[in-house]
Specification:
The structure holds two protein chains of two kinds. Chain A is an alpha/beta fold. Chain A has one domain: P-loop containing nucleotide triphosphate hydrolases (Rossmann fold, 3-Layer(aba) Sandwich), CATH 3.40.50.300. Helix content of chain A is 33%, strand content 28%. Chain A is built from seven helices and ten strands. In chain A, the strands form two sheets. Chain A has a six-stranded mixed beta sheet, sandwiched between helices. By secondary structure, chain B is an alpha/beta fold. Chain B has two domains: 313 residues, no CATH class; 54 residues, no CATH class. Chain B has an 18-stranded mixed beta sheet that branches. In chain B, helix 4 packs antiparallel against helix 5. The chains are: A alpha/beta, B alpha/beta. At the A-B interface, helix 2 and helix 3 of A face helix 3 and helix 4 of B. Chain B: This is Fe-S cluster assembly protein SufD. Chain B: Pfam families: SUFBD_core. Chain B: InterPro entries: Fe-S_cluster_assembly_SufBD (IPR055346), SUF_FeS_clus_asmbl_SufBD_core (IPR000825), SUF_FeS_clus_asmbl_SufBD_sf (IPR037284), SUF_FeS_clus_asmbl_SufD (IPR011542).
């Protein structure tokens, strides 16, 4: 069973006046089939955790370990991590000029699977995944994220999640900026992947709203660069009622 | 493509549409068009038409110090049946019919050549094989003039290949009879030290179609100035260009389409990729719709993809309209960069770095390459683009 283990992870970014530590010792274990929600106020370091796991060059790991089934993830390049089974659905996916969605998806699936998917089954696979996410087939011919609405970007991220079938899926604020219908469709997509039992999900969110659609097994409260409390789904209800104030030493950090 | 927020440092993209204004195309020239080099002052670099060009690297083409040497360029023409290939003297009356030189180097080329080549496709001849012209630089200085003339309803494809090392100033005339169809592919695949400055004049006959594909990969300085005018109504011109500018190279494409007659069409699309320190691409796209040119339909586009830091693009589309009675007129210019965030995004989907770069560049050029419509040229271009990318890694 695939397991992602994060141990005492420290991460800094380069700021104007030198490196600034964002993650201050994160411990978290995610097993295949489990869903972990990480919740916390803006600026608590949730997204830094997501991008550090995917290997974004902006973030420097200064301490700790991350392993996937014992393999050192931090030693891997960004593409190696993806091929090892780590997927990050981004909050702000970037535009890639000149590259069509269909070309991108196929190139990516080829890289992840180690061989080009058979054309006939691939076309069907993409088509049915797009239908389930209520995406227009014309979407496949557009350039990656170019001119996409917020909802389209998120659907496109989840489409990739469905097609690439990672071992560990990190969803960074996938719910932000979505209306209720889009949130439901995107959540259904995530749930289809979860129901296979083959993915461990790290759901990063600011709001409890998405947890009505995607039921977490564990909820972690993130504050000032580390997990400050962990519990079951009931912890989300507490956050819904009480907010993050109790976890912020500075008070009122949430927006 | 991400515009505005994603323009590489130092690059410019400026567009203008002037309606019934005093012609800036005319006013930006230092002197009126002329066949005589003496009519043009030696440029100093501040002139509008020279301000982007590194004059110091023109090896004297602009100031009269470049003198033709014995071993300039070798020209070989391979033509199928139905084509006449001649080498003629300066007094041949078919020379210079498609347009006058508009700048000092073009006039220098016209004033300095000794022999010109004239390629004629007879009236109504429809060629099934392309005419291939190989221009190979032998390391010297050369001035050239070529005329490619198609009789009425003739159809031809011409592929002009520039290779080797040379300092070459040239003018090329394309004269299309009524209803003729000409596709010209000019490939600048020079060695790294070559300097090539050329003016291409196309005179498009009534209901004729002209397609120009300018492909620039090599050379130290390459400056190509394709111009189109119409000799009758109903003509069409498609001007496509593709360039891959590497470290230190200056590649400049300046276009002018003059809609001087009614019901003509023009479509300009140039795309370039740049990589490396001091790679510099310049694109000037001028379209002038004169008062008589009612029913004109024109569009021009320039796209640039900057792959690394240190490269610079100057892109200036310019449309001047002297009549409102037109079918359509527009332009677009954008310069974007392939940045770390795009790379991260693609790599985070398992795609290795070199593959990610190829994907973006291939995608960027694909649509334009397909429009060329000549499979062997298309394949060669894609292979060349791949090779450019390989070299960069």
């Amino acid at each position: 069973m695939a397991t992602l283990e994060i141990r005492n992870l420290h991460v800094s970014v380069e700021a104007e006046n030198g490196p600034r530590e964002i993650l201050k010792g994160v411990d978290l274990t995610i097993k295949q089939g489990e869903t972990h929600a990480v919740m916390g106020p803006n600026g608590s370091g949730k997204s830094t955790l997501a991008y550090s796991l995917a290997g974004h060059p902006k973030y420097t790991v200064t301490g700790g370990t991350v392993t996937l089934d014992g393999e050192d993830v931090l030693e891997m390049s960004v593409d190696e991590r993806a091929r090892a089974g780590v997927f990050l659905a981004m909050q702000y996916p970037v535009e890639v000029p000149g590259v069509s969605v269909s070309n991108f998806l196929r190139t990516s699936a080829t890289a992840i699977r180690g061989e080009a998917p058979k054309l006939r089954t691939w076309v069907k696979e993409v088509k049915s995944a797009m239908e389930q996410l209520q995406m227009d087939p014309a979407f496949a011919e557009r350039n990656v994220n170019e001119g996409f609405s917020g909802g389209e970007k998120k659907r496109h991220e989840i489409l990739q999640l469905e097609l690439l079938k990672p071992k560990i899926a990190i969803l960074d604020e996938t719910d932000s900026g979505l209306d209720v219908d889009a949130l439901r469709q995107v959540s259904e997509g995530v749930n289809r992947v979860r129901e296979t039992g083959e993915v461990g999900t790290l759901l990063i969110t600011h709001y409890t709203r998405i947890l009505r659609y995607i039921k977490p097994d564990f909820v972690h409260v993130f504050s000032e660069g580390r997990i400050v409390e962990s519990g079951g789904a009931e912890l989300a209800d507490k956050l819904e009622n009480e907010g993050y104030e109790a976890y912020s030493t500075k008070g009122g950090a949430s927006a | 493509m991400a515009e505005a927020q994603n323009i590489p440092a130092g690059s410019t993209t400026a567009g203008s549409i002037a309606v019934a204004a005093e012609s800036t195309v005319a006013t930006r020239m230092s002197a009126p068009p002329s066949f005589d080099v003496a009519d043009f002052p030696v440029p100093h670099g501040r002139e509008e038409e020279w301000r982007f060009t590194p004059l110091a690297r023109l090896r004297g083409l602009h100031d009269g110090t470049a003198v033709a040497s014995g071993e300039g360029v070798k020209v070989e023409v391979q033509a199928p049946e139905g084509v006449t290939v001649e080498t003629v003297g300066r007094d041949d009356e078919r020379l210079g019919k498609a347009g006058k030189p508009v700048d000092r180097v073009a006039a220098q080329a016209y004033s300095s050549f000794e022999k010109a080549s004239v390629v004629t496709v007879a009236k109504e001849a429809v060629l099934t094989e392309p005419i291939r012209i190989a221009v190979h630089g032998e390391g010297g200085v050369a001035f050239g003039h070529q005329v490619i003339e198609l009789g009425a309803f003739a159809e031809a494809v011409v592929v002009i290949d520039h290779t080797g090392d040379a300092v070459l100033a040239a003018s090329v005339d394309y004269v299309l009879g009524d209803g003729a169809k000409l596709t010209v592919v000019s490939v600048q695949d020079w060695d790294e030290k070559a300097v090539h400055v050329a003016q291409h004049n196309a005179l498009v006959g009534r209901d004729a179609s002209f397609k120009s594909v300018v492909v620039t990969f090599g050379g130290d300085v390459v400056r190509i100035h394709p111009r189109v005018e119409y000799a009758g109504p109903g003509g069409e011109a498609e001007l496509f260009g593709l360039y891959f500018t590497d470290a230190g190279q200056h590649q400049e494409h300046r276009l002018l389409v003059t809609h001087n007659l009614p019901h003509c069409k023009s479509n300009v699309a140039y795309k370039g990729a740049l990589q490396g320190q001091d790679a510099h691409a310049v694109w000037i796209g001028d379209v002038l719709i004169q008062a008589a040119a009612e029913g004109t339909d024109t569009y021009e586009l320039n796209r640039n993809l900057v792959l690394t830091d240190g490269a610079r693009v100057d892109s200036v589309p310019n449309l001047e309209i002297e009549t409102g009675e037109i079918a359509g007129a527009g332009h677009a210019s954008a310069t974007g960069r392939f940045d770390d965030e795009q790379l991260f995004y693609l790599m985070s989907r398992g795609i290795p770095q070199s593959e990610a770069r190829r994907l973006v560049v291939r995608g960027f050029f694909a649509e334009l390459v397909q429009q060329i419509g000549l499979p062997d040229v298309q394949e060669r271009l894609l292979a060349k683009i791949e090779a450019e990318l390989e070299a960069s890694v």
